[in-house]
Design goal:
heterodimer; A: mainly alpha; 13 helices; B: mainly alpha; 63% helix; 0% strand
């Protein structure tokens, strides 16, 4: 039977009740009112039916074919390139600069070196002497130690006489010892120690720092090229 | 002129039988698995986009955008119901489309009486019941499109696609109380709009 209620609950609360809102559903007074009020019962029933129908609304076929899988290169490459790949350009630029600096520096020194270094002919002669006197350079006799300073000649094709750690100055000092101090032959351990110390710590070829710069530049350049053109973006 | 309305798929898309395994493979970078998921749910995504936007072409754009976003984000899927996750992405993509459209000259929503969705006649067990249901769905979609946009979004996400209040609030970037109010008002407004079709509910 229809019952008249002067004051109905707010319709939004009825809508919440129809939607199984737990907070409103716990309101016993509201539920009691709805149970006793035909008007509110109708509202809640209509809204429940409406919700049920809404929940069954079918899916829709797209109006046009959709691309299901995004193209990988455009969509994924920027996100996957990583910080390492971004270093390629700076590495190549720095490598190029170092190569230029190293090449200019070493070539400049090469032009000026013959004026301050020993004549290549002397070194060649020393090497020949070493080959004829001792198979163990730099260890047995002072005369061969002088030749050992140029032992880089045969190894490096004769164009870099000091890259094995013995500079022309070291060669000169060894030669001076050989010439001015025959007693050096009588005390090979002392002279040998001094001479080896000179070979390790003496100033090296002036071109060496520039060649190091050059090598560093080439390395950076190659690393940059690898990162930029060879390394592929991480998959997955 | 509004674009022709899309066809109904006739049903709601159910989860794939082996969905957790397919999702796991997609998360591991298996493009085939991802394609399988997207192909399975594309009608659900498109339906949501169309109901939120009201324009077939823009809904297709939004759905396409959602697929791209989903592909980018699948690695971070935290589990749960994949369909809900994908629908949230679709809802966000739809809102992006709407916002972009609002910056341009406005496009009128299609007239509910024009180009109404056609239902496929798919093996209906009872043609009369199916025809009645199809008509109900058609009127419901038309009534949804008459709601204010905020109410429509909230009702579609909650009552059509089953999101709870919190999910709707997150998807629409709105306060929880605001969302509740929009949903409740939207339901009441829909009831008014569907009053003349009440007999369709009694099937």
């Amino acid at each position: 039977m229809t019952m008249q209620h002067p004051v109905h609950p707010d319709d939004e609360r009825l809508a919440a009740l129809a939607g199984d809102d737990s907070e409103v559903a716990a309101d016993a007074a509201l539920r009691a009112h709805v149970d006793a009020c035909d008007r509110c019962t109708d509202v809640v029933r209509d809204l429940a039916s409406l919700r049920s129908a809404l929940s069954e609304l079918p899916d829709l076929v797209p109006s046009r074919p959709l691309q299901l899988l995004p193209p990988v290169p455009e969509a994924k490459a920027p996100a996957r390139s990583g910080w390492l790949r971004r270093l390629a350009a700076p590495a190549m630029a720095a490598g190029f600069v170092l190569v230029v600096v190293g090449a200019v520096g070493s070539s400049g020194l090469s032009v000026g070196q013959p004026a301050s270094a020993e004549a290549p002919g002397e070194l060649t002669g020393d090497v020949e002497r070493e080959d004829s006197t001792s198979p163990v350079p730099g260890v047995v006799a002072p005369t061969t130690r002088s030749a050992s300073g140029a032992s880089g000649g045969p190894l490096l094709g004769g164009e870099s006489s000091g890259l094995d750690g013995a500079s022309p100055r070291a060669n000169r000092s060894s030669d001076q010892e050989t010439a001015s101090s025959p007693s050096a032959e009588a005390a090979p351990p002392a002279n040998g120690g001094e001479s080896e110390g000179d070979g390790l710590f003496a100033p090296t070829d002036p071109r060496l720092p520039w060649l190091v710069v050059l090598a560093l530049g080439v390395g950076l350049l190659l690393a940059g090229i690898y990162l930029r053109f060879v390394q592929q973006p991480r998959a997955g | 002129m509004p674009a022709t309305d899309p066809s109904s798929s006739g049903t709601r898309t159910a989860p794939l039988p082996d969905e957790p395994a397919v999702v796991a493979r997609a998360m591991a970078g298996d493009r085939t698995a991802f394609t399988q998921l997207i192909e399975h749910y594309q009608s659900a995504c498109y339906g949501l986009a169309w109901r939120l936007i009201g324009d077939a072409d823009q809904a297709a754009d939004a759905t396409q955008d959602a697929f791209v976003h989903a592909y980018d984000a699948i690695g971070g899927f935290r589990g749960g119901v994949f369909r809900s996750w994908l629908l949230r992405i679709t809802a966000n993509a739809s809102y992006d489309i709407v916002r972009r459209a609002q910056r341009r000259p406005t496009t009128e929503l299609p007239d509910p009486d024009e180009g109404e969705a056609e239902l496929r006649d798919e093996a209906a067990p009872n043609p009369i019941v199916e025809a009645t249901r199809a008509e109900l769905y058609r009127h419901l979609d038309a009534a949804l499109r008459l709601l204010p946009p905020e109410q429509r979004s909230a009702v579609v996400l909650c009552d059509v696609y089953g999101m709870d209040y919190g999910e709707v609030a997150e998807a629409t970037a709105s306060a929880l109380g605001t969302v509740k109010s929009r949903i409740h008002r939207g339901r009441l407004r829909l009831r008014e709009l569907m009053a003349e079709h009440r007999e369709l509910f009694e099937r």
